[in-house]
Input
Amino acid sequence: MLVVVISPTNFFYFIVCIMIYKALSFIEDQTNLYFQGLIGPSTQKYVELGNIAKIVDSGDPTDSGGNSEIIITLVNIEEDRISKNPNGIYRKVDRVIKANPKILINLYVLFSAQSSDYPEDLSRISKVIQCFQSTNFFTQPSFASLDPGIEKLHLELYTMNFEQVNHLWSTLGGKYLPSVLYKMRMVVIADEANQSGGGLITEIQTKKNAIAGTLN
Output
């Protein structure tokens, strides 16, 4: 029998990758639902996760893993230190939890159109912008398909200057495609196995009041 031992650190990063994938898969599903409402049902996905760099490098759209016209690619991961709780103390119902501070992650997500029809590519990118102009804030109570481990997702259009656009597409392979970049806040990553806690303080009794209560 093969036994695989995973260190706590490696296991935590494994959980991080799963949460990021679930967040991106949710966005993929929501974008496809929006496209279906605009264009109509389809046997193929209008939008799917994929590495646009492979398509740019090979020139073959099927390298994305399918024939979708819009490819979602994660191009950067950023920790949001401003919103971070440095003490790592959180209230959960009637308990106080002490743990390492949660990691608040922003994902930079690129939507690229990769068909051979340039006007249609522009139209598809416009529909992506419409989609997240319509709804750009997602929470689990409002969207049952959002994983319970993800508190919220907030997408905002991220505008790059020409130098940044040139650098991004040079990194991806050099061939620019009609695209739009979104900053997705925030995926909360926490290692729940490394937590301690106790009950909330519901009453404070001073020494003077305690003595008076004993005498009475």
In short: The two ends are 69 Å apart (CA to CA). The beta strands are 47-49, 70-79, 89-92, 95-99, 103-113, 137-139, 152-157, 179-189, 195-199. Residues 8-215 form one domain. The mean pLDDT is 79.
